[in-house]
Amino acid sequence: MKTLTRINTIEQLNDGIALSSEAPLLLFKHSTRCPISAHAYKEVSAYLQDSPADEVNYSIIYVVEDRSVSLEAADRLGVKHESPQVILVKNGTPVWHTSHSQITSSGLRSVLSKS
């Protein structure tokens, strides 16, 4: 089973984005204070427990606890901040993103099987 690696520094964020040239990065921005985000977290977890794409790196940013990192991700990637949100990064560039109730295990499977 794949797990989410927490990103809580801008250096870790920069490293993850840089490494996306070797393996795609799925970045999950999660709020521990939001019930919609709690549901999205369950969907991401369900995806990770059920045959996730092995070549993808999976990371999580806690948007409340690590606000500066979350805002930096929005700035660096040019994707308007939302929470919950998933962003797929390849070669340092976001190639797909979605948010809120659009985050589903089946949706992730569909997009990431093509990565």
From TrEMBL:
Transmembrane segments: none annotated. This is Bacillithiol system redox-active protein YtxJ. It comes from Paenibacillus polygoni.
